Amino acid sequence: VQLQASGGGLVQAGGSLRVSCAISGRRRPYYVIGWFRQALGKKREGVSAITSSGEGQYYADSVKGRFTVSKDNAGNTVFLQMNNLKPEDTAIYFCAASVCTYELDYLAKFWWAEDDYDYWGQGTQVTVSS
Question: What backbone torsions phi and psi does residue 129 show, to the nearest 5 degrees?
Answer without folding.
Answer: -90, 150
